[in-house]
Amino acid sequence: MGTVEKAVILAAGLGTRLLPATKAIPKEMVTVFGKPLIQYVIEEVIEAGITDILVIIGTQHQAIVEHFQGEGRAREHALKTNDHATLAALENNIFPANIKFTTQQEPLGTAHAVLQAKSFIGKDSFALLFPDDIIINPGGPNCISQLKQAYTDHEANIVAVEQIPSELIPFYGIVAPQENIDQSKQSSLVPIKDLIEKPSIELAPSNLGIVGRYILRSEIFKEIESLESSEIGELHITQALSHLVISNREVYAYIYEGSRYDTGRPIGHVLANLAIAWEDPVAKQELLNYLKHLNKETD
After folding, report:
1. Are 126 and 45 in contact (CB under 8 A)?
2. How far is CA 33 from CA 10, 39, 292, in A?
């Protein structure tokens, strides 16, 4: 029976899709409904029962470290002014996990970032998460929990996928399943015969796009080390997974349950705020009132 007790979170990106918001702050510290993106994925990992976490950051991403390890100005001021409400709020923001950080010195692609975790992972299997993607599944297990269960059953490399609109296919890694897949059924798990990084619509083998959640075996590091850089000097995790498939090692696609919001896109960021606010009873009522107001204005 396979177990997953470690997680790697990639937080070293430049965030160019969210400029100018990310000109001076890491994109992972951009907030959705009052909480930084990086915190959502940390909480997802902890909720899935994983407490040994490595965050890969960029050279100018110290704010992420401060968020999880620093005291902060708010605490210092609250102590001086006996602001017990603020102190209580800060105490609630302490995470029951062993969170470590390492730096990717240059932005050389997702696979290069994952390679920075080699010594941390050793021979273990691990969860890999991209903070750009917020995935919510109200009332059910979160995405990493679902992948962990699938790994327990199969002990293979697993990538989370979803159906992608055809016009967005050139922006995703796309998988080619070994067999026909019932795309109307969620929680489907099928073996992959190929992965293609950002194919044209005409050359895409399916409309199943890879999203930012994986369970990977440690064998991935050997494949990354054997990769040749792309024309712009980057190494992609899709390439390494494709090499595993070519070597006849198992890689599965998993259609997860839940709704994903790509917060790296401005509209995705707006939708994520709305979706998470909708789960809050007070915020939901304010949203309903506002939507009624908008509806009257457009009548």
Report:
1. no
2. 21, 12, 21
The predicted model scores a pTM of 0.89
**What is the C-alpha separation between 262 and 206, in angstroms, rounded?**
20
Q: Residue-wise over 162-191: b if at least 16 C-beta within 10 A, else e? A: bebeeeebeebbbbbbeeebeeeeeebbbe
Measured CA to CA in angstroms, residue 237 lies from 96, 113, 118, 145, 220 at distances of: 29, 9, 14, 21, 9
**Distance from C-alpha of 218 to C-alpha of 126, rounded to nearest angstrom:** 8
Number of Cβ within a 10 Å radius of residue 203: 10
End-to-end Cα separation, the chain, in angstroms: 59
- Evaluate if residue 275 carries a pLDDT over 70: yes
- Token pair for residue 168? 């967005």
Q: What does the alpha-carbon distance between residue 193 and residue 51 come to, in Å, rounded to a whole number?
A: 33
| pLDDT at 125 > cutoff 90 | yes
Average pLDDT score over residue span 49-66: 92
Q: Using alpha carbons only, what angle is made at residue 117 by residues 116 and 121, rounded to the nearest 5 degrees?
A: 155
Rounded to the nearest 5°, which phi and psi values hold at 197? -80, 115
What confidence tier does 190 reach under pLDDT thresholds 50, 70, 90?
confident
Q: Is the pLDDT of residue 256 over 90?
A: yes
Query: How much is the CA Rg of the chain, to the nearest whole Å?
Result: 20
Per the structure block, which two tokens stand in for 231? 């024309």
Candidate CATH numbers 3.40.50.10610, 3.40.50.720, 3.90.550.10, 1.10.3720.10; the one for domain 6-298: 3.90.550.10
Residue bearing the bigger pLDDT, 148 or 89? 148
pLDDT in tens, 28-42: 999 999 999 999 999
- The whole-chain average pLDDT of the chain stands at 88
Average pLDDT over residues 237-261: 90
Domain borders along the chain are: 6-298
Residue found by looking up tokens 């002990």 in the block? 155
